[in-house]
Amino acid sequence: MTKKRWIVLAAFVLVAGVAIWFALSGQKTDDKTTLDILDGRELLVLMDGKELTETVVSPGAGDGLRIIVWLNDRQLADLPFGEEHTVEVLQQAGRNKIRITQDAVYMEEADCQGNDCVKMGKFTRDNWEIKVPNMIVCLPHKLSVQVTD
How many CA atoms lie less than 13 Å away from 143 in the CB half-sphere? Predict the structure, then answer.
């Protein structure tokens, strides 16, 4: 082989090695994967750490604002704005963690590419009507969090 071919081959091996390293370094190895947690189920919904087996509808007090969590066209929860909750949705497509505080609702974590749903920020009593759309949407996981009155 000529010197030029050796250099091209070495460069190719180096680029391939770096690409493989980047691909593998992004994987979580210290945590159970969503598929491990699901253990064969298609969907697992946790509210405040406890498994939900049916849709949660909490009439609650409050000022009439509601937070509705949707997966595709299936309603997972309907909660009054202002109750403190953490809702985790684990499915084969991935994982989302929704935080509801006294003052806001937001997507705290998601393992989707881009994390656009996390970047949508907090919806508060003061800004929910002016944010368009009035929901947080995770397109890859087909999950949405709607604020409505």
Answer: 30
pLDDT level of residue 127 (50, 70, 90 thresholds): confident
First-to-final CA distance of the chain: 73
Q: Which two tokens stand for residue 40?
A: 């064969």
Q: What is the mean pLDDT of residues 2-9?
A: 65
Q: What would the pLDDT profile of 64-97 be if each residue is shown by its tens digit?
A: 888 999 998 899 999 988 889 999 999 988 999 9
Half-sphere exposure of 120 toward its Cβ, with a 13 Å CA cutoff? 29
Task: State residue 37's pLDDT score.
Answer: 66
Measured CA to CA, the distance from residue 60 to residue 62 in angstroms comes to: 7
Q: Where are the domains of the chain?
A: 1-30, 34-148
Nearest to 146 by CA among 105, 86, 102, 90: 105
User: Is domain 34-148 classified as CATH 2.60.320.10?
Assistant: yes
Answer for the pair 95, 109: CB distance below 8 angstroms, yes or no.
yes
**Cα angle 146-35-56, degrees, rounded to a multiple of 5:** 35
